[in-house]
């Protein structure tokens, strides 16, 4: 073309969680039955939505025609009032309804948060990274996403010295991202660690983004501490949503909460730019906003969350006890969200290992696909072709670690245990091949 129309950050837009689906679909067409352990959709995995939640939604649709209408740009006032009141009762940074902005899911929020940053401003995030964040931040900057290390040998806790040094020696870093509980590792940030991250942000005059989409899915020893309770005057943004905890991923409803806007005029102006950008779209989906206060305030909701967390805890224990016996990997027990990340020990992968594939057509297809891929992606492809189990390689999470993420979503305990055991067996077989 006469002019180059490609965005300088286009190459940063990758999402291995869904990209690997294309390979899986090809294998399905060749006769392989796929077990989809790649994506965090509890509903697709068979989780049933409680009847009482469905009733609230159905009644709202039947009785309130305004659930079909536009909402205000920031979101329904009564819903934002409800959320602000709920947040303020927790303590910490206080907010008003004007500090809350709804989006069409957190994917929309993440895109806007990075798109409307100054082009030179960078946000450093965890490694392994969640690709929606890392891709959006990298695309915004036209450069590879900046990360600080999470250490699998210390239960995925962040390397704070690494974070501090990267902030100190990169003056373009304007913000720090945390995902709490973390995706893809299932780690929950201890309060002490959060306060140390806040101290770094204060020292270098940064803001903090905390993706808290899994805030109510916590089942380990570590308590989930919201960003609002530790900021102590530092500007911050918390990201929340309905997709994981109701769960209602198809609602595409999420929101951000701005903390301490009054402390920094530049941060306040940035927050306003996100509202202005949302105004160009008119508003976010109305129906989920209508039902949110009714669901969250229902006395059955707490028990609903508790029961779901109990199920994930049970599966986390099963997976941890299976993988801990595999000598070639590190697999810390998750304490939140519904994922577990498994890392191959240094030297375990050599780029020549294989697994047996019975179907000749599938074998030929996979051998063509593995050319030039990372060692963990090679393992993931062979695993899927050999067993049908689809996992996401950690290299797809903007990480230099070689491993994979698996979900804790399979509701059939026997099937879940069998899947995890097959994975463990195939790791051993692959490493020895």
TrEMBL record:
Cofactor(s) this protein cannot do without: pyridoxal 5'-phosphate
Single GO MF annotation: pyridoxal phosphate binding
Domain Aminotransferase class I/classII large: from-to ranges: 47-408
EC number: 2.6.1.2
Highest taxon of the lineage: Bacteria
Keywords, comma-separated and alphabetical: Aminotransferase, Pyridoxal phosphate, Transferase
CDD domains the record matches: AAT_like
Entry similarity comment: Belongs to the class-I pyridoxal-phosphate-dependent aminotransferase family.
Protein name per Swiss-Prot or TrEMBL: alanine transaminase
Organism name: Candidatus Yonathbacteria bacterium RIFOXYD1_FULL_52_36
Lineage: Bacteria, Candidatus Yonathiibacteriota
């Amino acid at each position: 073309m006469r002019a180059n129309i490609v965005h300088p950050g286009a190459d940063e837009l990758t999402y291995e969680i869904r990209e690997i689906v294309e390979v899986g679909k090809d294998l399905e067409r060749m006769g392989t039955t796929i077990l989809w352990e790649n994506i965090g959709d509890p509903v697709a995995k068979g989780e049933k939505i409680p009847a009482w939640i469905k009733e609230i939604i159905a009644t709202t649709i039947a009785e309130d025609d305004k659930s079909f209408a536009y909402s205000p740009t920031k979101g329904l006032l009564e819903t934002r009032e409800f959320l602000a009141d709920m947040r303020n009762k927790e303590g910490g940074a206080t907010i008003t309804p004007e500090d809350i902005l709804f989006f069409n899911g957190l994917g929309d929020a993440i895109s806007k948060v990075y798109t409307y940053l100054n082009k030179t401003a960078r946000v450093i995030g965890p490694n392994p990274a969640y690709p929606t964040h890392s891709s959006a931040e990298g695309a915004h900057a036209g450069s590879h996403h900046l990360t600080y290390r999470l250490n699998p040998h210390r239960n995925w806790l962040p390397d704070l010295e690494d974070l501090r040094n990267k902030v100190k020696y990169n003056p373009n870093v304007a913000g720090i991202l945390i995902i709490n509980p973390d995706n893809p590792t299932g780690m929950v940030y201890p309060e002490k660690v959060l306060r140390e991250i806040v101290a770094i942000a204060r020292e270098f005059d940064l803001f903090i983004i905390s993706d808290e989409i899994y805030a109510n899915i916590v089942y380990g020893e570590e308590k989930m501490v919201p960003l609002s309770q530790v900021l102590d005057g530092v500007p911050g943004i918390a990201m929340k949503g309905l997709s994981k905890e109701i769960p209602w991923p198809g609602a595409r409803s999420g929101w951000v909460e701005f903390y301490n806007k009054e402390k920094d005029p530049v941060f306040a102006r940035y927050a306003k730019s996100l509202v202005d950008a949302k105004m160009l779209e008119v508003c976010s989906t109305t129906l989920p906003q209508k039902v949110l206060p009714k669901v969250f305030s229902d006395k059955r909701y707490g028990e609903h969350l508790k029961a779901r967390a109990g199920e994930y805890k049970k599966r986390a224990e099963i997976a941890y006890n299976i993988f801990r016996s595999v000598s070639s990997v590190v697999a810390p027990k998750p304490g939140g969200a519904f994922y577990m990340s498994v890392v191959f020990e240094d030297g375990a992968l050599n780029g020549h290992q294989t697994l047996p594939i019975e179907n000749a057509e599938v074998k030929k297809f996979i051998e063509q696909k593995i050319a030039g891929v990372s060692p963990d992606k090679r393992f993931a492809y062979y695993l899927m072709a050999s067993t049908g189990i689809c996992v996401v390689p950690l290299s797809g999470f903007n990480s230099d670690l070689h491993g994979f993420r698996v979900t804790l979503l399979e509701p059939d305990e026997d099937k879940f245990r069998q899947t995890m055991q097959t994975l463990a067996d195939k790791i051993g077989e692959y490493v020895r091949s």
